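DATA CLASS: polypeptide
GOAL: derive structure tokens

***
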Amino acid sequence: MRHSIAVIFVTAFLGVAFLGCNSSSGLVSPEVSYPNNFQTSQNGENPALGNSAEAASPHQLMSLSQVYYNPADESFELVPVRLSELHLNIKKWLDGTPCSECIKIAGIQNLGGGVFNIDFQITHPFPDPTYTAFDTRGIVLFNGSRNYPASGLTAPDSSLGDGELLNADGYTTLYNSSTLGDGPDGLQGFQGGSLSTPVIPSALLNGYKRHYSSYPSNTRNALFDGDSSAATYKIDLPDSVVVFGFAVDVSWDIPLVNPVTDPMTQFGPNANCPEAWKIDVVATPVGDGLTEFGGEDQLTIDVYDWQGKDSTFPLVVECPELFDGFVAVPFLQDGVGYTRYQASISNSKNAPVGSYKVLIGKTSSENNPVYPWLDLTAYQIFTVEINPSINQLPVAAASANPNPQNAGSPVHFSGAGSNDPDGGAIVSYEWDWNNDGVYESTGAEIDHTFSGPGVYSVQLRVTDNEASTDTLNSPLQVTINSTQATWDNTIGTMLHSNCASCHISGSAGGKNYSTYQNFVNSNVVDLANPPNSKIYKKVKNHTHDGDLTDPQLAILLAWIAAGIPEN
């Protein structure tokens, strides 16, 4: 498929015209005097403006173009912003032939699925190292459908139908649609034209690629005089006609020494961009990491700033699909050329499995609210993954207190010891009060009253947020006594009614249990060790199975433990 590329170029660099190559005179050199929209004297005053608030801008808009994409023939057309659409209020500088090679599309590769590798090439137009550019960035301006409500920003997202730069080095709010006509002479933003309505992409936050001269000695992201720098922009485009912006931004300051022979040492640190020039992020799962049921990732964030550590503004992290607001990011340590932070992010909203874009922002101390068009904040968008959880069954655990308890008085049951090993939540607690398979009550903490004496087997079933269940390995045994078991109101009648068919008149083994006194005289109880009592062991052994039920045996044992009261 043919890729047609039309390139027309007009630009302003550092507020000075560089009108490029024409057939008669070649490269047009800039004027010697510094333009008043960026120069300040050593005492901070602007020579042209005097001691006004219109001070130096650390960023300069080198050029602004529109790129037209037609999917019908996969053609791209790079067109400068002209007076008929947008203008930069620089008509007085448009006196020569524009340089057609200073900014161009040098190559296109169709990767399929609407994704292209586009090589943008930027050539420094001046043959004078005095105008060495620092931190040159090509900013791709798209519409923005992804919202970051805490920051008040919108960003391009191809999954929502926008064009998107997929391999951005970083993100900036410079030259977005909200800066329309702002800044000295309108040079820091768009300026509406008089002949037609401009196409202004809506995103407030846009991705960029860095351009710099490829020399080992270039330690400050400089684009040297006369050099060209190409970068590959991996761009995802909708299957429709698209118009997007391409802005070239540079940072510059008056050199410390003139003429300049070594830009690395003869420009002060303020020649570089004042905000952080790079933000690197690494995500480390905590345990199972982020899952659809919660979880946590730890972000290690390295912030590179030419002017050193900047603690005036906090580093902020935002991802509205996972959590509300900002995450506080504490400083961790200083490294060589960078400052390290660590942030823990969680999926508190239980977002489903998928990829999510986390916004990270670090504002420079030089940010000045007087200049709203000039947001000196470095941004990075980092993608985290919500992975499917590895399901493990929950574990049921229960307790009862007090145990034993008297009939008619409540027993408090708790399932608080239950847990889900995979980090999920227990969402249901169900109680079966007599272990018959019917769960009568629900609740993690619950009281239940048994009306009659006995030993009750209580079962607990728990369910986690993945609908997995578990029950107690063995039912909880709860002993319920009479209000006060005595020989007269419980024990005598219980023994006579259950044992008289075999032991007529209470006679057994030469002993007679027909009265309380006979029972005491029989010497068949061990008050120091109730389970060792002869009557308990005899009744409980196999030859007497069925004579007393388990609840009745529990009552007999509790009566012995209470000192065998008579009435």
